[in-house]
């Protein structure tokens, strides 16, 4: 009886403690998402936000019929798959390297933190200057090693520009994956490895059949977080190419930004935003499935 | 024989680390060396990797509005101040409000606890672009555009769920026995939180504030949309503006970039222990 009322009181305190955070989160995330949905059924000019005309699903229909939209989706998928794929391979390789404890491995781990900590916009500015056609380091370096025989204007070709934006993103983000995987590797008991070694497994076999399966959850977490992040890429594109040349590096967030704040189509922009929310929700559900394990320790 | 093999292995492994160092440092060295070059050296062909006439002029100019090399660099110091103010306020609020929720979620059984936790995790994933249009319309109706408060509030949309998620992870690792002992001594829930949990969680709190501060310092999208005047502009917006439509103030952009990178890089290096423990607790900047 006494414990029961105590428990009830406890539950009340629990709710009270959560309420301030919940109100803030509802106010600045759920409410805007719902307003976005509402706005997406109107045609509204940015210059006159109150003068919207109800047009039902027309914004969505127009978007789905629009070639630019589909080209942007595929471009975003390309960016996401290529950058996250390379980051993952590079991240795992570097994590395994650190785990093998080469001389000064702690120094290497410390150095990995630097690209990760450099602000995204600064990273973009740095690479933009590296790619500069007339004065950039990339041209100077490649010319010096005889790989090219004249300076190239890298950012004038849409496909090259996209790949170079990806390179900049890889530099910034692979350390994050490497650090996560390295921490996970360090938590694998060493005797497992030794036992396999005694049984005659070579280093590669030990990596693929012992460590890799145990890294599954760490890899999944890194993968899902990076995928969601890469899919919404904006900052680095804005700084390096502003979406150019000829829309060649416009990803889905960028298209929404253009549509809303450059062309002033609030309704269409909202519809795009809402589609992004839906996609993210799907990703978030996968994410929660893998991350939310109340009884187990995380990662 | 064994000894030789060991040496071989060490040398082999070490030579594998070299490309990683090169990958990490080549762009950084280029950024730093550009920032200490004078404009005419930077804008001359062929490109040289190290400055012929190293100078701190670019740094001096950017801190001295009278000598500024462009409109944006005149206000750079102001934007640094804005970034500090906004990032620290966001960190403080997210930790203060978030620690209460995180404790409840980690320790107290209340209705819909699981649902709340999932909702918080879910909102962490919502991209800024999905929130920005209504927030922009609301801010402009209330006349809040170009006020620091609009960034502080909107940054909480990623900072708060994030802080709650990491902190509840840390709180869960604290042995329940400690709390039980305090309860027997007559401590209330709030007493336990402030006198038992928070003091032991210091490493977790440092790690959380670090992640929140870094992500607020890094934020660009909201800052770009909500601010256009000097009063609120943050460092990332200023850096992006160095590359204007017609001209690029390259010296200011390089020096400004280094200055903008210094606080997060230094913080991350000093507290690298906490960064790594934060990453293992499932904490992620982004």
Question: What labels describe this entry?
Answer:
heterodimer, A: 299 residues, mainly alpha, MetI-like fold, 13 helices, 2 strands, 74% helix, 1% strand, flat, disordered C terminus, B: 286 residues, 2 domains, 15 helices, 73% helix
Walk me through this protein's architecture.
The complex is a heterodimer of chains A (299) and B (286). Chain A has 299 residues and is mainly α. Chain A has one domain (57-291): MetI-like fold (Orthogonal Bundle). Chain A has 13 helices and 2 strands. Chain A has a two-stranded antiparallel sheet with strand order 1-2. In chain A, helix 2 (58-65) packs across helix 13, helix 3 runs parallel beside helix 7 and helix 10 (216-231) packs antiparallel against helix 13 (266-291). The longest helix of chain A has 38 residues, at 2-39. Chain B has 286 residues and is mainly alpha-helical. In chain B, helix 5 crosses helix 11 (202-218). The relative contact order of chain B is 0.14. The model of chain B has no long low-confidence stretch (mean pLDDT 87).
Quick summary of this structure?
With 299 residues, chain A is an all-alpha fold. Chain A has 13 helices and 2 strands. The mean pLDDT of chain B is 87.
Helix proportion range of chain B: over 70%
- Per CATH, the architecture of the largest domain in chain B is Orthogonal Bundle
Largest interface (CB < 8 Å): A-B, 105 and 106 residues
Q: Give the N-terminus to C-terminus distance of chain A in angstroms.
A: 39 Å
Q: How would you summarize the topology of this molecule?
A:
The complex is a heterodimer of chains A (299) and B (286).
Chain A: H1 2-39, E1 42-43, E2 53-54, H2 58-65, H3 67-99, H4 105-117, H5 120-130, H6 137-144, H7 158-186, H8 190-198, H9 203-214, H10 216-231, H11 235-240, H12 252-262, H13 266-291
Antiparallel strand pairs in A: 1-2
Helix pairs in contact in A: 1-13, 2-13, 3-7, 3-10, 4-7, 5-7, 7-10, 8-9, 10-13, 12-13
Chain B: H1 2-35, H2 39-42, H3 57-62, H4 71-74, H5 76-107, H6 113-124, H7 132-141, H8 148-172, H9 176-184, H10 189-200, H11 202-218, H12 221-226, H13 235-241, H14 250-270, H15 272-280
Helix pairs in contact in B: 1-14, 5-8, 5-11, 6-8, 8-11, 9-10, 11-15, 13-14
């Amino acid at each position: 009886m006494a414990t029961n009322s105590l428990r009830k009181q406890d539950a009340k305190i629990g709710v009270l403690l959560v309420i301030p955070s919940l109100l803030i989160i509802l106010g600045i995330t759920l409410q805007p998402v719902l307003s976005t949905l509402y706005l997406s059924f109107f045609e509204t000019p940015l210059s006159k936000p109150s003068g919207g005309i109800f047009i039902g699903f027309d914004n969505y229909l127009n978007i789905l019929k629009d070639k630019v939209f589909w080209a942007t989706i595929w471009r975003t998928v390309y960016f996401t798959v290529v950058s996250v794929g390379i980051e993952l391979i590079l991240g795992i390789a570097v994590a395994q390297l650190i785990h093998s404890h080469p001389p000064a491995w702690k120094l290497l781990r410390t150095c990995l933190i630097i690209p990760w900590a450099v602000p995204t916009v600064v990273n973009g500015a740095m690479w933009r200057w590296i790619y500069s056609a007339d004065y950039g380091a990339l041209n100077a370096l490649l010319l010096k090693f005889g790989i090219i025989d004249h300076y190239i204007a890298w950012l004038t070709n849409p496909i090259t520009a996209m790949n170079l934006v990806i390179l900049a993103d890889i530099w910034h983000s692979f350390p994050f994956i490497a650090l996560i995987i390295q921490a996970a590797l360090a938590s694998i008991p060493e005797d497992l490895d030794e036992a396999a070694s005694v049984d005659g497994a070579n280093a590669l076999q030990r990596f693929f059949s012992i460590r890799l399966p145990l890294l599954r959850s760490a890899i999944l977490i890194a993968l899902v977080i990076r995928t969601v992040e890469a899919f919404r890429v904006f900052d680095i594109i804005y700084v390096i190419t502003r979406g150019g040349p000829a829309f060649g590096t416009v990803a889905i967030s960028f298209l929404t930004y253009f549509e809303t704040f450059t062309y002033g189509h609030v309704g269409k922009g909202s519809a795009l935003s809402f589609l992004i929310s839906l996609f993210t929700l799907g990703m978030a559900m996968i994410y929660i499935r893998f991350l939310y394990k109340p009884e187990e320790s995380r990662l | 024989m064994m000894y030789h093999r060991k040496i071989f292995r060490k040398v082999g492994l070490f030579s594998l680390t070299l490309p990683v160092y090169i990958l990490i440092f080549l762009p950084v060295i280029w950024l730093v060396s550009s920032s200490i070059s004078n404009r005419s050296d930077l804008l001359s062909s062929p490109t040289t990797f190290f400055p012929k006439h190293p100078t701190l002029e670019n740094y001096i100019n950017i801190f001295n509005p009278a000598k500024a090399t462009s409109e944006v660099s005149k206000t750079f110091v102001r934007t640094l101040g804005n970034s500090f103010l906004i990032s620290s306020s966001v960190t403080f609020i997210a930790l203060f409000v978030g620690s209460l929720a995180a404790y409840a979620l980690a320790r107290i059984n209340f209705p819909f606890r699981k649902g709340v936790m999932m909702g918080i995790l879910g909102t962490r994933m919502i991209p800024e672009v999905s929130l920005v249009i209504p927030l922009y319309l609301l801010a402009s109706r209330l006349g809040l555009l170009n006020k620091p408060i609009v960034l502080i509030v909107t940054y909480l949309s990623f900072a708060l769920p994030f802080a709650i998620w990491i902190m509840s992870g840390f709180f869960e690792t604290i042995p329940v026995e400690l709390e039980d002992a305090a309860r027997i001594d007559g401590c209330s829930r709030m007493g336990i939180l402030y006198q038992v949990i928070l003091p032991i969680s210091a490493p977790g709190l440092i790690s959380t504030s670090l992640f929140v501060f870094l992500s607020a310092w890094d934020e660009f999208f909201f800052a770009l949309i909500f601010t256009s005047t000097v009063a609120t502009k943050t460092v990332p917006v200023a850096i992006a503006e160095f590359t204007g439509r017609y001209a690029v103030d390259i010296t200011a952009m390089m020096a400004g970039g280094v200055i903008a990178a210094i606080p997060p890089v230094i913080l991350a290096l000093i507290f690298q222990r906490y960064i790594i423990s934060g990453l293992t607790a499932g904490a992620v900047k982004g």
